[in-house]
Amino acid sequence: MTFRSALTRREAMRSALLGSVVLATGLGGSAVAAEKLKAAWVYVGPVGDFGYSYQHDQGRIAVEKALGDKVQTSFVENVPEGPDAERVIERLAREGNQLIFTTSFGFMDPTIKVAKKYPKVHFEHATGYKKADNVAIYNARFYEGRYVIGQIAGKMTKSNTIGYIVSFPIPEVVSGINSFMLGAQSVNPNVKVKIVWVNSWYDPGKEADAAKVLIGQGADILTQHTDSTAALQVAQEKGILAFGQSSDMARFAPKTQITSIVDDWATYYVERVKLELAGKWKSADTWDGIAKGAVYLPEIKNVPDDVKKMAEETIAKIKAGTLKPFGGTITKQDGSTVKDLDDGAILSMNWYIKGIDDKLPQ
Amino acid sequence: MRLELEKRPERSKVMAVASPIAAVFATLVTGAVIFAVSGVPPLKGLWIFFLEPFSSMWSIEELVVKATPLILIGCGLSLAYRANVWNIGAEGQLTAGALAGAIVPIFFNAWQSPLTLLAMLALGILGGMLWAAIPALLKVRAGANEILVSLMLVYVSQLLLDWLVRGPWRDPHGYNFPKSVSFEDWQTMPTIGDGRLNWGIVLALLAAVSLAVLLRRTMKGFEIRVLGEAPRAGRFAGFSSDRMVIFAFMVSGGLAGLAGVIELTSTVGQLQPNISPGYGFTAIIVAFLGRLDPIGVIVAALMLAVSYLGGEAAQVALGISDKTARVFQGVLLFWVLACDTLILYRIRFVPGLPRGEVAR
């Protein structure tokens, strides 16, 4: 294995010095087992968010379970998407991690910068678009799941008003809103979506407030593109239905969660770490969806059987590739039309489809 | 028996020296207990948290990089707070400074000369001053509370930044992601060595030293102290508290703006929705920790930088949670403030029952 063999003399001296200090004070311990592959993860939220970061951490744990003593993993949580990220990533590279996963969009440029400095270390960045020889990118087609829950919401709403709590108007989120609405419109032409931006990925207080506002405005089903369970719990208090996000949140609101859009990173992480162990890691661009299990919806509950059946059929069609949420003719908010969007168009989406009652922050 | 705090007739010189040492010691003991409780060998924990950041050039450089904006903002705020002017909105002035500085690379992208950087820095200072002028003028002209106005303007500036990077200032080739163009060459702060250490720290130290001289050696410094400690006496001496409000906001706002544009041109490198992890607010703690003294602020800024870096190191090396790491910042501040009490007060043991309780 190629650990950072290219230590400069200065650095080598520094670490020798540090090593002797550690030994002298009797504090060394974990520094020895150099045979293991060290892999590290950087999370934007706390691993206890039970949403996005939690789900990535489940992937990390799966790697440990699958590969046992061949790997040694670590993680840093709650890393702000700003200048601090670069330091955190560089620290991980310096400490001998050979494979580093940076799991939020805002870590893109810091990852690229550190990757340039450490060409022998391999990096993987989730949800961005900048690649390099030692930086792979990966993402999941969350929007496929959103089409399915959009259909369920369109069927289930009585007030024809659905509340949608969102984080930042980046393409991933916008395409999610559009896909949800396309699903809802496919079964209910009168459906309306109300949108509240909370400008954060994880802020239980704000998310709960947004949920209350939306319910106050007549929404009888809630969905979200933020990471905490707060909205679901508010929905449960008020006795309405809602969808989970990123992980299966049923245990927080068993009578409220219909289903959830679960990101399953475990398969991908195990596969990538195995490649690294075999010395076959290569930079790549992976964007899997429901078909490959990167996105899945846990058992649909709290709805009548016919709705459940419809949703399961839609999932099957997406899996088979016969239904593409952004296939066919789509009418934009301004009345113009587009056809059969390709991945590039989905990844850079900054417009709403017709029928969404909100103006995109431009 | 009960404990009582008794005001000393004057500041204790011994405690002024002993208090920070006692605070650090108490923090270490508390830290050891926390590590022991969470199942980490206490010595190893303390090493990683407090000393590891000093163990390699890389992390020392990172400490300095982290401390740079805190020093700049902290010493500006120290001056303001000494003058009894409560600027709570440094975070907003930082954002305004970054926005103003970004005008150069966004609108004159092709202009590359050393003057480019100077223009950006100057605009940054100006931006911070302009943003600070709003609460200052509202205070002087309309008697508006400067705490409230400056704080609220933080949110205004952040939303303005958010709107600009998502809209008009967005990189046209950036796949619609909320980022401006990346800054290149003279649009960025030159680094010292091959790490992230940059000339910003030199500017920060210059600012701290100049403010220290200003406060200690000049008439203006005397005016600041008099107006801060005894406003009535200051007025009798012919000092204008209105002009002092404006002066204090200009200095603290300008320095916060400079910190913003330095961050922008060094560690961030482009305009994006998050350019500061709350430096403007952290600097308030830094100012008080440094006893409102520019030189003290340098030490305090480094202390806070250690708590951030140590927290990250502890997460990676010890697997303790981010929350535990943050508890340490709180513990440190708690002990510093608690020990500082002993400078002005002494503890006395008084025999008898606590006041207000009747013997049965």
Task: Provide an overview of this structure.
The complex is a heterodimer of chains A (about 350) and B (about 350). By secondary structure, chain A is an alpha/beta fold. Chain A folds into 2 domains: about 35-140 and about 265-290, Response regulator (Rossmann fold); about 140-260 and about 295-345, Rossmann fold (3-Layer(aba) Sandwich), CATH 3.40.50.2300. In chain A, about 40% of the residues lie in helices and about 20% in strands. In chain A, the strands form 3 sheets. Chain A has a 6-stranded parallel β-sheet with strand order 2-1-3-4-5-11, sandwiched between helices. In chain A, helix 7 packs parallel to helix 8 (about 230-240). Chain A is globular. The termini of chain A are far apart. Chain B is mainly alpha-helical and about 350 residues long. In chain B, helix 3 runs antiparallel to helix 10. Chain B is globular, with a radius of gyration of 23 Å. Chain B folds into 2 domains: about 1-40 and about 320-350, no CATH class; about 60-310, ABC transporter involved in vitamin B12 uptake, BtuC, CATH 1.10.3470.10. A two-stranded antiparallel sheet of chain B has the order 1-2.
Question: What key attributes describe this structure?
Answer:
heterodimer; A: 362 residues; alpha/beta; Rossmann fold; 2 domains; six-stranded parallel β-sheet; six-stranded mixed β-sheet; 14 strands; globular; disordered N terminus; B: 360 residues; mainly alpha; ABC transporter involved in vitamin B12 uptake, BtuC; two-stranded antiparallel ribbon; 2 strands; 70% helix
Sheet with most strands of chain B: 2 strands, antiparallel
How large is the radius of gyration of chain A?
A: 22 Å
Instruction: Please estimate the helix content of chain B.
Output: 55-70%
CATH class of the largest domain in chain B: Mainly Alpha
Number of strands of chain A: 14
How much strand of chain B?
under 5%
User: Unreliable segments of chain A (pLDDT under 50, ≥5 consecutive)?
Assistant: 1-33
